Amino acid sequence: MSCAGFDELPAPTSAAHFHSSCYLFVGLTASLRQCASICESRGAAPVCPSSDEENDFVWSGVAMNGRHVDSVWLGWYNESGGLSCVSPGADSAYAAAKASAAAPVRGGSAQAPCLVAVAAGASAAHSSDWFESSCDNYPWSSFKASCVCGAPHNVSLADDVIARMEAPSEA
Q: Cβ(128)–Cβ(76) under 8 Å?
């Protein structure tokens, strides 16, 4: 697959269980909304890994490619008791299994609406674990998560869905 005009990496040719065909690291963003906006302007959406192979490729092949990153916004979010992706067609069964082990990020609360990929300990250069997080202000106010876009996708989140995810949870 050619990623001409997208300026980044195509999925490996053996990528049978990848949600995206092309990937682009766009830098640090303060929120899933900001990441989605940047991706959408490029005809893409924040990544929603749909297999361990895709998750590892996004982390080591795209996000960590010549850079050091601590975390990546994922396009997966909790809503109505299940996971949804900001773009249609991603494998929610994989995401549900991966996210079932997700813990709140330090400072986050249980059942936070968004997910971030964070370095996986000793194998940080090759893989990531998923953690629940707020969507608008990563738990450390001065910290921003990386944004990786996957194409070709369109962001299907309505502004009201994003606003609900960013709202403080009712205690």
A: no
